[in-house]
Amino acid sequence: MASEEVLKGTLRNADGKPFAKYKNLQNSFVLEDFELFFDDIQNDRAGHTAMRVRVPMKRAMFPEDTYSTKVREIALRDLIARRFWEACRTYARSPIPKTDGGELFIPRPGQEILERWSVVITPYYVEARFTADLPSAGGKVSAAAMEELIYVRIKCVVGESMIYPSYKQSKLYNHIQTAENAEFIRSHLKERGLVAFVADGSVLPRREDELAPMSGAVPFHCDDSLKVTFDVPNGDPIAGWGVKRHMNVVLGAPRSGRSTLADAIAAGPYNHIPGDGREYVISFPCASFVVSESGRPADSVDVSMFLKDSPEFGEASAAKAASLCGCHSEYVSMSEYIELTSKLLIIDEEYVSPETLRRGFMDDSGAMVPLTEAGPALASATVATFIVSGDPEVARSADTVVVMDGFSVRKADVQKTERDFEFSIPKDRYPVSKGISYEKGRKEVSVTASSVRSIEIGTYQVNAPVAAIYDMSQARTIADIIAVARELMDGSRTLLQVVTEAIGIVKAQDEAKDSATGMWHSQVRDLDVAAFLNRHPQMLCIQRKRFACDCCRSCPASG
Questions:
Q1: What is the phi-psi region of residue 461: left when phi exceeds 0, alpha when psi lies from -120 to 50, beta otherwise?
Q2: How far is residue 234 from each of residues 134, 140, 173, 179, measured CA to CA in Å?
Q3: Is the separation of the CB atoms in 427 and 316 below 8 Å?
Q4: Which pTM value belongs to this model?
Q5: How far apart, in Å, are the Cα atoms of 309 and each of 301, 306, 367?
Q6: Once rounded to an integer, what is the mean pLDDT over residues 114-131?
Q7: CA angle 51, 53, 58 (to 5 degrees)
């Protein structure tokens, strides 16, 4: 670690010389207010330099109770990342005058409070990881502009985002306590027999850019027969609709808010920032949205619970298809989610085929088992369903039926029709990467995030339209996890084991003390990593023979 004098001397020696002389800054420097790290300096003006700034906790002054638990630490890191991004937009969104550099960048957070590795907190320091475009004039090093970048732009960004006195105390603690309350509710769903919770007063409709609630929207309300209350750690108890762990159907007229409610519950695995409107719309971490995806592929997926053998995909116990029709794609998605231990399936009739919800009037072949028959059996095996439908037959299969009108729900009394159907867990699959081409151009392994729910693996663009991914840091994390998973997919691990292990490897790299890659990454779910692999047209999976019994995943007699 070098001194501030060494930094200034290095800049003076490089001033006016070719851009490549910036490489002499590849070091860490102790300045008056913070430590500055140049981890990976750009080769030319077109690149970006990976940097870190570290503020000693004695100067940052964040009280210990703001990061004393893991939930609080994650929330504080999330808040600092937001303020850092905002400060970059204020002080460093355009080049330094008379140069072609000087911008600072950190991934933009969305509405979700996520564990973000762009910020690290320890009892000894607060660290932010970011990129900078080093300034140059005519392709030459500009020492004066570089000093402005460090002593004006970076210093201002640090002062507004990494120093506790720069925050309004009430807003900082509100951010932390909102996340803590939400996580408390989520951690108590199972013991209350629930899979989701929607607090009274939640504002569910989204603005067009998805970054705030819709202005003037009607708050959510549920009647007393559906209401449960949580005594949260901070503030008054929170009451709302407790969605039970069984088959739930939501009835209502068009534009009554049913689909918006389903979308909010699908986003419920993550906590949300104060003011989002969905702060206390909480779901199981493994909630999954099912939609029709005509044309998606499948490889060795056990759909035998829902479908019989078919010329389209072959054996139902190991369905294979290059391109599925709409209703078959929905059954494949549900089977994949259950295989990956999802405990909540969210289905909106607007986005699925009618055959997925109920048996057709002329269908007596039994080739497909709709959710009117499978839903209760799923619930008995602790796989809950949340179905938006106006179909009376679907409602008669449900354990709980509610009517939604103007974002208010009330319980409906519907005579349940008993169903005789047996649930079976889909067989595990063991992925093999040799079928997937990761090459692109000169790169042997190329996996990049094209957009929030689109990842390019090699030359293939893979889309996962309903993955619970809400900002580019999550998409980039999944891209890097898939690159790591390539070496793990050797046929010895299940798909769930592959993605879990790959997530662990990337997380360990991000948590390394001197990580220069963590700035691009944030919290993701194994379900969403698997969603991209499952939709790759070259995906190859094998199944192992099961023995003795097929009763549960933990049974030693199952293969």
A1: beta
A2: 45, 55, 10, 10
A3: no
A4: 0.93
A5: 12, 10, 8
A6: 97
A7: 165
